[in-house]
Amino acid sequence: MKKVLVINSGSSSIKYQLFDMLNNTVLAKGLLEQIGEPQSKLTHHTRTAGGAWDEILRTQKVTGHQEGFALIGATSRARSATPVSFSASAIGSSTVVKNSANRPLSMPRLWRLSVN
User: Fold this and answer.
1) Shortest CA distance to 3 belongs to which of 93, 94, 95, 85?
2) Taking the CA atoms of the chain, what radius of gyration do you get in angstroms?
3) Can you give the residue ranges of every domain in the chain?
């Protein structure tokens, strides 16, 4: 299965979708918001075998993005009715930063991973 993980990482959130490129479907998607706040919220969805969405909500303190990605991976593996492996053939990323005029500036990136 060829999978592509797309990540949109902002200053206090991570949005993500995992695509199955052979079947043109979304396998998982989610949003982790309020990173660095006293109470962060993760909404994680995985597609069930029947095509419906399984939703998991978690609230806990997440101090940074590295901790956020670990929470997303652990939630997908351990708590989903249909666990999803985030191993991918490519990863697309968009990071939003502010430029010198304090305007949002998107920085898209695409990494192709070598898969054995």
Assistant:
1) 85
2) 15
3) 3-112
